[in-house]
Specification:
Length: 456
């Protein structure tokens, strides 16, 4: 049996594990699933005869090294900052490694050793990063193969709630890490290139600079800019492209409403609220408003934000039960961002029957024989349930497929890498399509950048 060590049995691991177990007899595989919680790892095995669940603490150096030594290949589904010790052990014991995380500087520093040991360290092979790389590079390579020159690249991705489960005024629920949603866009201005000019959007303006997107059968969406679009120039070979923009997808109206929290300061994660465990939601809101001897919290908030009582923005705030004096924060030494996350979790947690949805949208402009053209590529994936979510499917399946491709010698190029080469993306995209992760590509006249940009 060929042993695959999977470290981390969280939400993203469900589809990954199911895929490999479904193929385990045919491919002669045994899965060792390690997690701090052995019971969680055990749940993910579904009592399959080709899987073992173990309690694994990656900070236990001896145990970590012992389990890595036994494996033929290692999959790390840990948070990104925890991969590096696993990766170093994989160098020591000459094991291939697969992760869905961005390549850190520490991981990149292992490239020389990985190549010297003929090891494949495949990273960024989840959804975003991952499927975005592969689906974009497929089209870029096809354009270049027929002599075209890239002039525009825009790429958007979002984890959303499926239409049948979309039942709140925000048209949004948490389908992945809530903390990442609350902190989105912080840490510096968003930067991109528009028609050859560098553009920057500071955090306090980010959610009022959005672009409309239309997806057939699913209606209108909006996209706000990711923090750094420019790092993809060298990765995709787009150094001469005139427009390069990457963004996050939400339903239309979300960003304008979210901007209320940004302007009030509730997304700040840099300081702690005194007595945070004892204050009510209403008292938390009042912390960010000026003193007035008679005005209520509601009136002060409307005045601060400049919204009327009949504004849909006000209804969105009321829906979150923000002004409830009986609901207590209950978090010790919490930042505003942590408290906001707690409040939103009350309303935006997926219910047992809810389904999530992934939307990905690429716009690629190019010039060939003096004519400008555009290709729009769109993908929508809807989850099955709360275990096999669209997020778990789109993150986990590419990881699983790549792992099997490496084990079977189909992916051969060693080193620390991401899936932008044809030997990697072509078979993975083909197999993903058989699981319903399908991109619909449409060629049209070149529309250029900013054709449907809105500025608040």
């Amino acid at each position: 049996m060929r042993n695959i060590l999977i470290i981390g049995a969280g939400r993203s691991a469900s589809s990954l594990i199911k895929y490999l177990l479904d193929k385990s007899d045919q491919e002669n595989l045994h899965l060792t699933i390690g997690d701090l919680s052995q019971s969680l790892a055990q749940q993910k095995t579904n009592n399959h005869k080709n899987a073992s669940a173990i309690a694994l603490d990656i900070f236990d150096e001896n145990q970590r090294k012992t389990e890595i030594q036994k494996a033929d290949i290692v999959i790390s589904m840990l948070p990104a900052h925890l991969h590096i010790e696993v990766a170093k052990d994989c160098i020591t014991y000459r094991k291939h490694l697969v992760t869905a995380s961005y390549i850190s500087d520490a991981m990149q520093a292992l490239d020389k050793d990985a190549k010297a040991n003929n090891l494949i360290f495949m990273n960024e092979i989840g959804l975003d990063p991952g499927i975005d790389h592969m689906s974009a590079m497929k089209i870029i390579d096809e354009i270049r193969a027929k002599g075209g020159k890239m002039i525009l690249f825009e790429s958007f991705c979002g984890g959303l709630v499926a239409p049948e489960s979309d039942n709140n005024l925000w048209n949004y629920k948490f389908t992945w890490a809530p903390r990442n949603v609350v902190l989105a866009g912080q840490g510096g201005a968003a930067k991109f290139i528009q028609e050859g000019t560098y553009k920057y959007i500071p955090y306090n303006k980010l959610f009022r600079r959005t672009e409309f997107l239309e997806v057939e059968g699913f209606g209108k969406f909006e996209g706000y800019a990711n923090r750094d679009s420019l790092k993809y120039r060298s990765i995709y070979g787009l150094e001469d492209v005139l427009t390069l923009y990457r963004g996050t997808i939400r339903r239309v109206g979300f960003s304008k409403a979210w901007n209320m929290f940004v302007q009030l300061g509730m997304t700040d994660d840099t300081y702690v609220i005194d007595n945070s465990e004892t204050i009510s939601y209403r008292e938390f809101i009042n912390l960010f408003l000026p003193y007035h001897p008679t005005d209520s919290v509601e009136i002060k908030l409307r005045l601060s934000l400049g919204i009327e009582q009949d504004d849909i923005m006000w209804d969105k705030l009321l829906e979150l039960d923000l002004f409830n004096p009986k609901k207590i924060v209950g978090l010790r030494n919490a930042t505003p961002a942590q408290i906001l996350e707690k409040i939103l979790n009350d309303s935006w947690t997926l219910q047992p029957d809810d389904k999530d949805m992934i939307v990905m949208y690429h716009k690629l402009g190019y010039e060939i024989d003096g004519v400008k053209k555009q290709i729009d590529s769109k993908m929508v994936c809807i989850g099955e349930d709360q275990i096999y979510t669209a997020m778990a499917k789109t993150v986990g399946l590419p990881v699983a497929i790549a792992t099997l491709q490496i084990l079977n010698g189909k992916i051969k190029t060693p080193g620390v890498q991401l899936p932008i080469n044809k030997e990697v993306y072509e078979p993975i995209l083909k197999e993903l399509a058989s699981y319903g992760v399908v991109f619909n590509e449409k060629e049209m006249p070149y529309l250029g950048y900013n054709s449907d940009k809105i500025f608040g």
